[in-house]
Design brief:
The longest helix has about 40 residues, at about 30-70. The chain is rod-shaped. Helix 1 runs antiparallel to helix 2. The protein is about 90% helix and about 0% strand. It has helices spanning about 1-25, 30-70.
């Protein structure tokens, strides 16, 4: 389904800011203000990733249920 494929690419795209903000916030390259900003960015990008993952899981389960009902 096109929704499942789009969901995969959304999850892949959202994983980049989640990963980068996590890794970069641990490095001492930035000051305290930037680390706080990255923590906030990580929080909201992780929230968006979790919401997209739940939606993707819902679409996959619904698609499998319809396949089972149709035989």
């Amino acid at each position: 389904s096109i929704g499942v494929k789009a969901g995969f690419w959304v999850l892949l795209t959202l994983s980049l800011p989640v990963t980068l903000t996590m890794v970069l916030s641990m490095l001492p390259l930035f000051g305290e203000d930037w680390q706080n900003w990255m923590f906030t960015a990580h929080r909201y990008s992780a929230l968006a990733f979790a919401a997209a993952a739940i939606l993707e899981l819902y679409m996959l389960v619904r698609m499998q249920a319809q396949k089972d009902l149709n035989g």
